[in-house]
Amino acid sequence: MITIRKEEEKDYEAVFKLTEEAFRDREHSDHQEHFLVEKLRKSEAFISELSLVAEDENGTIAGHILFTKLTVENGTETFESLALAPVSVKPEYQNQGIGGQLILEGHRIAQQLGYQSVILIGHENYYPKFGYKKTSNFGISFPFEIPEVNGMAVELVKDGLKNKKGMVKYPKEFGID
Asked: What positions does the domain N-acetyltransferase occupy (predicted)?
């Protein structure tokens, strides 16, 4: 039995450890995700309602997800969206659907807060299960080279990305210029 709730300050240490563990053996990782979460919590991009933990019946934090503000810019217009990064599940809890529960609950809350879309870089076989499509389908690109199949976005509302073409601009905490 997993409960999804808003992350609290008392969870920070457990989230730091689980994020490090979740990415420790990942091939496509800079192994800095746990530090990124700390930086983003202190940033203007942070939305406390969209930092969620998955807790088991014993109170163990099994997973965490973070959605932060980002923009899509095209020279004349700027559109607000969300970045999903990272989603972390403790290794012993992986492949039990916890990441998916975190993603769906995050989408629900983001939609309630008025956000229309989420953008991420992720595994091409995992995120489409949650409605994500290639950002190239929407005319959205990244400020660095990635395989086209790994840049994805989801519309949280109908036409949430319609005519919102441009380049993703991450908060400075991501370390991307």
From this structure: 2-161
pTM comes to 0.95
Number of residues written out for the chain: 177
Task: Tell which phi-psi region holds residue 152, choosing left (phi > 0), alpha (psi between -120 and 50) or beta.
Answer: beta
Contacts with 161 (C-beta within 8 Å, 6 or more apart), sequence order = 81, 116, 117, 138, 140, 153, 155
* Domains contained in the chain, CATH given: 3-174 (3.40.630.30)
Axis crossing angle, helix 33-41 with helix 12-23, rounded to the nearest 10: 150
For residue 166, list its beta bridge partners: 140
Q: Residues 76-111: pLDDT tens digits?
A: 999 999 999 999 999 999 999 999 999 999 999 999
